[in-house]
Design the sequence.
């Protein structure tokens, strides 16, 4: 399919450019938007591979929720760009060493005889139904315990993060909506009869 | 050659959906001004064209000929691209919306997920517009909108989980067909999923930043929120996106909870009144579109902390409980699951 190839190369090129942008752009908001584009194009590639569930969930979770909160934080920062570049020469040796190490590791792992396309059998294509359905069936039958345990671990992480950062402030004022709704007229309003000083003039 | 034909045919189909949608947005803005006008005992626009029908086009041309002002110290690139980022997902979501049995741009099985993904992308236009404008009011509007959309997306997603439990499919066409039966409109999902239906409708209003949840614009507090600096055609694009989103939510409510193109008298009476037809879908969507205008003319704006409380402390617990109820209804056979 020519269309598929054209799409693949266009998306792949865009993905590489966007990934490069994440690490090279100076403005953190621009870098974050680059990361959004990276997620988006890689999800397109997954959809090209007919993994539509993973592709759509990548957009839904990472682009739709995680990156929005990320941008939320990054936008509030008042980052001055010039001091960020000052330490570049000083940290260059460390950075270069780490990058080289990572490159070597990846080459060693990926080029060894245990990896590569010829080492793996082509996964069987889902013949009946969509891969959303197939994934759901697998997750909730064969892998239900790992799945549930992963969910509980995530929940623990959420609760831990909230308890670590949440501080109760003294003297803070909060509304109790239930109490507000239950208020009756007699709780707030007192009608006082004031005797008029004189009856002349006919006032009430 | 076949590929070229495929691409051309797909583009043509896309145009067949988007052009009527844009026209619909144009007349929706007019309808909004007329309807709210009547609710406030005045006439609304009535001078351009018969009954004011040409007013939207006059507005569009006025906007197009206005200068596009870019504030000093604004982030030019993001400032210009933000309206497009708001518009693109609002249009892209229509790719999976079916208009009748077998009539849709794409009938993917993960249709509901795709819709959730697309509607969650719309927030980027808003927050980037607010940030790139380099304006306090715009930034405040962007922050409010981001928090609000992220919060209500959860309730909306959970409401949709209820629908897919009842329908047994993520495919929008199958969801509609699962609501077919012999008891007329009582077969539709609004009845067994009534709390989810209401949560979805209200969350839809909040997701589109419409009154009474329009704190992102809140003209009495932060001028016009995220689009305060936008003028001319860029402002028009934001407008287009907002109304396209409202129409989308109306269609989705009709499809997911009100039986889509199925007749409210299905199985009860024969003939054309009892037969499924796209006209039913349009009528239902039009009703929900009217509701958006009705809400705006009726309710005062919610206070920001009340919006958050409603989303997190009321809607999310309701949806979680009702997902369990829906699962029990399906398992016990009270609610017949579609296949």
Sequence:
């Amino acid at each position: 399919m020519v269309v598929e190839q054209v799409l693949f190369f266009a998306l792949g090129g865009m993905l590489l450019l966007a990934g490069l942008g994440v690490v090279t752009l100076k403005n953190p908001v621009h870098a974050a938007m680059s990361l959004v584009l990276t997620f988006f194009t890689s999800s397109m590639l997954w959809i090209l591979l007919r993994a539509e569930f993973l592709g759509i969930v990548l957009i839904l979770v990472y682009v739709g929720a995680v990156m929005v909160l990320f941008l939320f934080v990054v936008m509030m920062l008042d980052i001055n760009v010039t001091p960020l570049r000052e330490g570049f020469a000083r940290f260059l040796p460390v950075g270069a060493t780490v990058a080289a190490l990572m490159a070597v590791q990846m080459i060693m792992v990926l080029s060894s005889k245990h990896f590569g396309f010829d080492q793996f059998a082509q996964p069987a294509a889902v013949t009946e139904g969509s891969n959303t359905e197939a994934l759901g069936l697998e997750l909730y039958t064969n892998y239900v315990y790992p799945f549930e345990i992963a969910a509980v671990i995530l929940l623990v992480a959420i609760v831990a993060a909230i308890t670590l950062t949440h501080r109760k402030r003294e003297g803070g004022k909060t509304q109790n909506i239930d109490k507000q709704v239950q208020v009756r007229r007699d709780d707030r309003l007192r009608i006082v009869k004031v005797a008029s000083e004189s009856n002349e003039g006919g006032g009430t | 050659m076949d590929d070229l034909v495929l691409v051309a045919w797909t583009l043509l189909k896309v145009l067949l959906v988007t052009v009527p949608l844009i026209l619909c947005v144009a007349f929706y803005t007019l309808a909004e001004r007329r309807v709210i006008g009547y609710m406030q005992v005045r006439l609304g626009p009535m001078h351009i064209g018969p009954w004011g029908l040409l007013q939207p086009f006059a507005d569009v041309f006025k906007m197009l000929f206005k200068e596009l002002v870019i504030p000093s110290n604004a982030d030019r690139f993001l400032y210009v691209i933000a309206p497009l980022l708001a518009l693109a997902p609002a249009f892209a979501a229509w790719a999976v919306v079916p208009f009748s049995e077998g009539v849709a741009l794409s009938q993917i099985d993960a249709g509901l997920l795709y819709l959730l993904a697309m509607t969650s992308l719309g927030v980027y236009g808003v927050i980037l517009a607010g940030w790139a404008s380099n304006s306090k009011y715009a930034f405040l509007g962007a922050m409010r909108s981001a928090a609000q959309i992220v919060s209500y997306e959860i309730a909306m997603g959970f409401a949709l989980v209820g629908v897919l439990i009842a329908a047994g499919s993520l495919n929008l066409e199958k969801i509609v067909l699962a609501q077919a039966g012999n008891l007329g409109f009582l077969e539709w999902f609004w009845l067994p999923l009534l709390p989810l239906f209401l949560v979805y409708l209200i969350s839809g209003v909040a997701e589109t930043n419409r009154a009474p949840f329009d704190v992102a614009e809140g003209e009495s507090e932060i001028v016009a929120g995220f689009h305060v600096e936008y003028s001319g055609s860029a402002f028009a694009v934001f407008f287009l996106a907002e109304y396209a989103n409202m129409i989308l939510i109306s269609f989705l409510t009709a499809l997911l909870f009100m039986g889509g193109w199925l007749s409210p008298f299905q199985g009860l009476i024969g003939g054309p009144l009892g037969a499924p037809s796209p006209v039913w879908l349009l009528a239902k969507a039009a009703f929900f579109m009217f509701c958006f205008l009705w809400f705006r003319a009726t309710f005062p704006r919610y206070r920001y902390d009340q919006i958050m409380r409603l989303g997190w402390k009321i809607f999310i617990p309701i949806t979680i409980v009702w997902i369990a109820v829906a699962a029990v209804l399906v398992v016990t056979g009270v609610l017949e699951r579609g296949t």
